Amino acid sequence: MARYDRAITVFSPDGHLFQVEYALEAVRKGNAAVGVRGTDVIVLGVEKKSTPKLQDSRSVRKIVSLDTHIALACAGLKADARVLINRARIECQSHRLTVEDPVTVEYITRYIAGLQQKYTQSGGVRPFGLSALIIGFDPYSGAPALYQTDPSGTFSAWKANATGRNSNSMREFLEKNYKETSGQETVKLAIRALLEVVESGGKNIEIAVMTKEQGLRQLEESEIDAIVAEIEAEKAAAEAAKKAPSKDS
Amino acid sequence: MRPSWRMRTACGRRAGDTLFDSRLALGNFPSTFEIKRVGSNSVEAFEKLKLLSRATLAFIFKEGVIVAADSRASMGGYISSQSVKKIIEINPYMLGTMAGGAADCQFWHRNLGIKCRLHELANKRRISVTGASKLLSNILYSYRGMGLSVGTMIAGWDEKGPGLYYVDSEGGRLKGTRFSVGSGSPYAYGVLDNGYRFDMTVEEAAELARRAIYHATFRDGASGGVASVYYVGPDGWKKMSGDDVGELHYKYYPVVPTPIEQEMVDAPAA
C-alpha cells in the first residue's frame, strides 16, 4: 500500500487514488463550513478559530466572493484555496469577456472542479486539499444555487451541506431540520447547524448572506451574537415546553 | 488618414444613430473607427471584400429579424455562380450572412455552429446571439492580418429577444438594428433606410428586404441571382422567399405598352 501513494498518477491495486483520499483527510481536519439554500437567500457559515490577539481578524476572511453574484467558502488548506479562488475569479471575468454574460454557478463550479481533477491526473503535482462550497444566483433565472466540490474533482448541487471538521454531525442535523426557508430563517438554520459543532458566540462564527439584489454581505459580530441569542432563547423555550407537560402528568 | 473601415463597407457609422450601439463603438471597441491599414494581407483582404459581390442585409423590427441576400458570385468581370447560398444556417435559431471570401465565411460559420452546439451541451442552455457573435469575433481577431476576409452578420433570437451583430475579419463587432454589407450595400441602404419602420408586419418587412436586395442587384453589376429572404422569430428562422431578381424586376416595373403615336400603314397600291 505504501508504494502506491508517491506519484499520484498511479492507481493502487484495489482501485484507490491514495493522494486524493489523503487530501480528503486534510479537508476533514479543516475548519467547519456550512451552506444553506433558501428560497431568496443563500447563507454560508464557517467556523472561526480564535484569532490571536495581535492578528488583524479582517485579513483572514474565509468567505470570499468570486464575482458580484457568486461566493465561495471552503474547508481545508487555505493556501490551496487562495490559488483556486484566484483562478476562478479570472475565469469569471474571462467568461464575461468572451460571451458578455456573467457565469452561472454551475459553470464556475464545473470549472473549479475541473481544475481540481486536473491535479489528480498530472505528474509531479498533488491534489488541492480543499472542498469548496459555492453559492450564487443564476443570472438568467434568478434561482439560488449551492454546489460543493471536493479534491477528487466531483461536484454536485445541494439544498444544504457541510464540510470540514465534524461535517457529518452538521449534515445529520441539517437532514433532520431542513425545510424550505427564506430570509432570516435560513440564516438561523445555518447558524444552528454550525452551533452543533462550534462553541457558541459571534467570535467563533463567520456568516455571509447572499441575496440577488445586494450580493454578498458579511454579518457583523454583533448581528451574529443577536441571532445566537435568539436561537438560545428558542432552545430554552423548547426545553421548558418539553418539561411542562411532564410536570402536569 | 481616412479609416479603411469607410472604404470597405457601408455599415452604420454615423454617431447618435439608431444603427449601432454607441457604447460598443466607443467603449469596448475604440479601435473599430480608427483602424489603420495593418499589413499587406489585410489590404488585399479589404480589396477582396470590396470587389467580391455581395448584397446582404439584415434588420431588427418588432416581430424579429429579417435577413436577406442575393446569390451572385463574381471573379472580376466573370460571374462564377448565380446560385450561391449566402445565408448560412448556424443552428435552428441563428443565421449568418456571407460576405467577403466564400471559403472563409463557410468554414468559420460551420465552426461557430459547432461551438454553439458544444456550449448548449455543456451549459444546458442555448448560447445567446451576443455570445455567439463574440466567439466568432474573438476567433477572427486572433487571425487578424493573416488574410481572412469575412464580413458577416449574425442574426438570431435568444432569451433577450432579437439580436443582430456585424462581425468582420478585422475583429470588429458591432451591435445594431440595421446593417447591409457588400458591394451592393449602398443601394440596399437607400431603399432599406427609406422604407424602414419598427412596427412592420412580417410580410411588410420581408417585402422591404426583397425590394432592397432587388434594387442593389439592379444597379450593382456584382450582385444578382436570387433574392433570398429569411425571417428569424421566437421559434427560429424560416425562409420566406427566394425570387429571381430578373422576375422581380418585371414585378416591380411591369412593361407598360407605350401608346402608339403614329403607325406606319402600307401605301395603297398605286
UniProtKB/TrEMBL annotation, chain A:
Broad class of the protein's primary localization: cytoplasm
Chain's role: The proteasome is a multicatalytic proteinase complex which is characterized by its ability to cleave peptides with Arg, Phe, Tyr, Leu, and Glu adjacent to the leaving group at neutral or slightly basic pH.
Entry protein name: Proteasome subunit alpha type
PROSITE patterns linked: PROTEASOME_ALPHA_1, PROTEASOME_ALPHA_2
One Gene Ontology CC term in the entry: proteasome core complex, alpha-subunit complex
Proteasome alpha-type subunits domain location: 4-26
Residue ranges crossing the lipid bilayer per the database entry: none
Matching SMART domains: Proteasome_A_N
Family: Belongs to the peptidase T1A family.
InterPro entries: Proteasome_alpha (IPR050115), Proteasome_alpha-type (IPR023332), Proteasome_asu_N (IPR000426), Proteasome_sua/b (IPR001353)
Compartment(s) where it occurs, according to its Swiss-Prot or TrEMBL record: Cytoplasm; Nucleus
The entry's keywords: Cytoplasm, Nucleus, Proteasome
A single BP term in Gene Ontology: ubiquitin-dependent protein catabolic process
Protein species of origin: Zingiber officinale (Ginger)
